[in-house]
Amino acid sequence: MSASLEPSAPKDRGQRWSALLALLAEHGRLSVSQVSSELEVSESTVRRDFGELAAQQLVTRTHGGVVATSVAYELPARYKSALANDDKQRIARAAALMVDPGTVVGFNGGTTTSATARHLAARGDLARSSDRPAITVVSNALNIASEMVLRPFIRCVSLGGVARPESYEQSGPLAAMVLEQLWLDTLILGVDALSATDGASCSHDGEAGISSRMVRRADRVIAVVKAYTTRVGSGPFPTELIDADGEKLRAVGAEFGTTTGRPRRCGWYDAVIARYAARVNGVTDFVLTKLDVLSGFDRIPVCVAYRLPDGRVIDEMPMTQTDFHHAEPVYEEFPGWREDISTIREFDDLPKNARAYIEALQAMSGVPFSVVGVGPARDQTLQLRPLA
After folding, report:
1. Which of 15, 106, 257, 263 has the fewest CB atoms below 10 angstroms from its CB?
2. Domain range annotation of the chain
3. Number of other CB atoms surrounding residue 201 within 10 Å
4. Quick count: other Cβ atoms within 10 Å of Cβ 80?
């Protein structure tokens, strides 16, 4: 059974406060009546809890409720806009559910990793756990550390170092030295780009150095892939669809830039790129998202190889950028499905063709799919294998 994000009625004050703070982390603002209903306690108890939490500077009182205690700075605009980005939120929810209680999880900075940390802090099973800490978070991002340290069930380790105002990430010799003394069970890694030829990349040298050290210190590296492929900007895209299928993927998947509204380029799943990215980045688990977007397609091609200009067919990345720019996809087609899968929560309940598609992608990508997303809501996920 997958971990739940929903709090249940806690018995004692410590558990109640943990559940209350988890709700606050999720919603940002709470009313007395809302908490009373969610936690099944009296409104007088809620008011008393609000007052005591405010006295400890864990919340800020408002008329009729509380809001999350403000940090001493404002997040950059890109972090604020990410809060309304459905794609990032669905990825964050799926990734947060993959973290096992009692483990050490690492986060670097970024909008998606920050959202994942926030969803992790909102997990009801961690808030209710009798173990303290229920989870240990290691991060070089000041904004993540400032949120995690307020959760009584989370131990927060900040790496230290020199912080950049653009990203709030710390880097430098101090961060590197501290990281060398730690081991991470799971790493949630945010990157600026994922290149088929270079793998994950970061535009800042100092942050890239810390991210690479995090990968080396992690026992588990989780990567998130869509059930089809998208790209922003120019560059080679062998499976790109410039037809009705591409328009359908874009419309159903809401593939438009959050800030610019610019339509993303869409195409079929590319197993060659997925396999290469997993290998060069040490990926141990994939989270497959947006499987529900493919409902309604009669057939679903998957790129399994490339045909080069000289006629050769290869199932690995081309050696040169020239070959990659001119590579033509070699497809293996799978039968689609018509059923609405957004309400399904068990793998065996999926349509037969959807199960076959997932199993084929997993075999082609070379890394197990641990979680599959079938919708944007936090409970619209399927666990395919134990997360221990």
Report:
1. 257
2. 13-68, 76-219, 223-388
3. 12
4. 11
